[in-house]
Amino acid sequence: MRDALKVPAEAVMTLETQRGVYVKVPGEQGSGERWQEKFVPCRFGITDGEFTEVLEVLSDFPLEPDTEIYTRLPRRAADR
Which of 9, 18, 66, 75 is exposed most, by the fewest CB atoms within 10 A? Predict the structure, then answer.
């Protein structure tokens, strides 16, 4: 996967019927959360079990190589 955008295979999740990744974004003002997660739907290519290739981002979110993504979703303050 040379020069390919790839994510940890365990970060690929499903929301309803769409596959994608959750990315770390600043919390909305007044939410009490410093960070929140945003689901970014994607189309994926090959995987070696450790990393999975991102072929296409299916939203307007700019998924870049330095974007922080979740492999496990954090617990919300309200859930603690």
Answer: 66
**Of 45, 59, 80, 78, the residue nearest 15 (C-alpha):** 59
Residue 76 reports pLDDT greater than 70: no
Between CA 55 and CA 39 the distance in angstroms is: 16
- Give the sign of the dihedral formed by CA 66, CA 68, CA 70, CA 71: positive
- Cα separation, 8 vs 22, in Å, equals 12
For the chain, helix, strand, coil in percent to 5 are 10, 45, 50
Secondary structure class of 33 (helix, strand, coil)? coil
The structure's pTM equals 0.84
Q: Which of 23, 18, 26 is nearest to 7 (CA)?
A: 23
